[in-house]
Amino acid sequence: MDILELLAKFKEEMVEEAFSTIEPVRLQGYTKAGEERTKKKLARLCDEIIVCVKDKTLIPILNYTEQMATERYTSGYDLHQVQTAFNALEEAIWTRVFAHTPPEKLKESLGLVTTVIGAGKDNLARTYVSLATKTKTTSLDLQALFKGSEGINEV
Length: 155
What we know:
The chain is mostly helical. The protein has one domain: Orthogonal Bundle (Globin-like). It has helices spanning 3-9, 11-22, 28-33, 35-55, 59-74, 79-100, 103-133. Helix 1 packs antiparallel against helix 4 (35-55) and helix 4 packs antiparallel against helix 5 (59-74). The relative contact order is 0.16.
């Protein structure tokens, strides 16, 4: 099963698992929104991830996380709450990826999903911080951190 099939097949299961992870934590904004609305938000995030993996583009997740950050910020959600929900979905995705991806397809699957989720989480945080501080934030340039790691391709 390739990554796209996997994400589509297990979407509902991943959304349910993500919700069951955040529900006991009683995140104020999501508790107020209720179960049905929270699951719809998680499903929408999962849909955006699937579109990005399918089309091999980050534009949908970047657009959605900007919208998501704006909506959650203006609704009074703390960044912590939004990141916790995102992390719960990410964990549910990883559980399925590792359980159902053949070893020979794992490298590509990990690369695609990591790239999409990482870009989404980064954009979500930057947008939220921009809104909270009323200043424009940019991506961090981490090249200096990785200097000296040239030639290391395998973990």
